[in-house]
Amino acid sequence: MAAYDGEIRYWDTHFGNLMRYIEDIDLKHPPAIFITSDHGESMTERNYYFEHGAFLYEGTVRIPLMVRLERDHPPGIFPGHVRLMDLSPTVLDYLQLPPLENADGKSFNDVFCTNDQDVLDFDVPLQSCSPALHMYRSRGVISGSHKFIDYADDEIQADEVFDRKKDPGETRSILNIENGTLIRDLHARTSAFFEQDYVPHREPRKSRQIIRSDAVEVLKTLGYIDDESELAPDAIR
After folding, report:
1. Could you give the CA distance from residue 150 to residue 143 in angstroms, rounded to a whole number?
2. pTM confidence score
3. DSSP strand E in 60-131: where?
């Protein structure tokens, strides 16, 4: 935990230096600043220690998004759902540049310009991606205040439904007969995103890329590999 706190302090220090530099040079048109992360991190919740990718709980799928626009833009906190793939369409829209062709994301620039929060009201699909814990493969959806997690193997882990408003810590699944209509609706919404059923798990391919030994340690620290066994024997130098 101390090492993780140190990472936060390191980032915060250098980001503070950057912000002070921007203020000191007093640009005529200050830049728009978007701050976010690629994923969260489990901090020992549910006996999942400093990892991400295997489960779809809030600790790993919910990340911060902080935006600073013009100096005179009013501050605010906006509820709703934003996905990482929505960032590039939003930035281009804000800068009044042409949109990307065939982009999967959608702009939420109207939230800043008109306070129209309806653009944040949509379902968000979720899917786990950890070969190391493939037995917990799952997918699901966030819809309104509810999250549905559909596990590939119900004998290992039963599906879960959480009310994120009443139970933000996701401590009690409400998957029961009384909520049958809700569960069927969430299951249908999940299936709408994932056209194919789960495919049989395949062991991950061994990497054939040559990787320096010090880079392997960095990848392990960041959680991208668990140990050297995930790499080909001749891949490390």
Report:
1. 14
2. 0.72
3. 66-68, 124-127
102: region left, alpha or beta (phi > 0 left; psi from -120 to 50 alpha): left
* Polymer length of the chain: 237
In a domain, 27, yes or no: no
Instruction: Provide the domain limits for residue 230.
Output: 205-237
Taking CB atoms within 8 Å and a gap of at least 24, the contacts of 42-47 are 43/1, 43/4
Please report whether residue 148 resides in a domain.
Answer: no
pLDDT digits (tens, 9 = 90+) for 90-110: 999 988 999 888 888 889 888
Number of independent structural domains in the chain: 1
H-type helices in the chain, by residue range? 2-25, 58-61, 87-94, 109-114, 180-193, 213-222
Burial 143-157 (b: 16+ CB within 10 A, else e): beebbbbbbbeeeee
142 domain-assigned = no
Residues 6 or more apart whose CB falls under 8 angstroms from that of 186 comprise 140, 141, 143, 146, 148, 161
Query: What's the rounded Cα separation, in Å, for the pair 74 and 118?
Result: 19
Whether the Cβ atoms of residue 59 and residue 43 lie closer than 8 Å to each other: yes
Among the ranges given (3-12, 22-31, 159-168, 220-229), the one the predictor scored with the smallest mean pLDDT: 220-229
The answer to whether residue 234 sits within a structural domain is yes
Mean pLDDT for all residues in the chain: 80
185: Cβ–Cβ under 8 A, 6 or more apart, which residues? 143
pLDDT tens digits, one per residue of 117-162 = 776 778 888 888 765 556 668 899 999 899 999 988 777 788 999 9
User: How far from 8 is each of 15, 17, 103, 191, 217, CA to CA, in Å?
Assistant: 10, 14, 32, 37, 19
